[in-house]
Amino acid sequence: MTQRVTLRKRQPYNTKSNRRRVIKTPGGKTVYHHLKKLATAPKCGDCDLKLPGIPALRPRQYATISKRQKTVRRAYGGSRCGQCVKDRIVRAFLVEEAKIVKKVMKQAAKTAKK
After folding, report:
1. In 3D, which of 98, 52, 100, 95 has the Cα closest to residue 87?
2. How many CA atoms lie within 13 A of 34 on its CB side?
3. Could you give the CA distance from residue 96 to residue 53 in angstroms, rounded to a whole number?
4. Whose CA is closest to 78, among 62, 97, 100, 91?
5. Three-class SS of residue 107?
6. pLDDT computed for residue 79 by the predictor
7. Keywords assigned by UniProt (predicted)?
8. What proportion of the chain, given as a percentage, has pLDDT over 70?
9. Is residue 93 within 8 Å of residue 83, measured between CB atoms?
């Protein structure tokens, strides 16, 4: 017959914040170990990809690690993945090019009228 295990916290309900695991101690007793919530990694704001180089921690733990561990040294470092940053740069470049082409075409049409 297995040994009975009692809860070590006052909260008796089976909730997400009250997960536990049965552990056998070196003294032969069976006890509950209360587990912390699982951390999720930060995701890219555009494509929802997990951001590489940034650890998955609970929100409060980000306050204890250094800035270089929370971000990547690039434009949009801790918020967008590298591919989305690249796409944004290319899109901005093409928009500027389109403006220049439009301006040149307008000027060419103007000189053709004269």
Report:
1. 95
2. 13
3. 32
4. 62
5. helix
6. 94
7. Ribonucleoprotein, Ribosomal protein
8. 99
9. no
Averaged pLDDT for residues 37-63: 95
Mean pLDDT of all residues belonging to the chain: 94
Residue with tokens 């000027």: 107
Tell me, what DSSP letter sits at residue 8? S
Would you tell me how many other CB atoms lie within 10 Å of the CB of residue 17? 11
pTM more than 0.85: no
Residue 91 reports pLDDT greater than 80 = yes
CA angle 74, 85, 93 (to 5 degrees): 115
**Cα–Cα distance for residue pair 90/70, rounded to 1 Å:** 26
Residue 65 confidence (pLDDT)? 95
Is the pLDDT at 113 greater than 90? The verdict is no
Nearest of 50, 85, 86, 56 to residue 70 by alpha carbon:
56
- Vertex 30 angle, CA 24 and 36, to 5°: 75
Q: Which two tokens stand for residue 2?
A: 């297995």
Total number of residues shown for the chain? 114
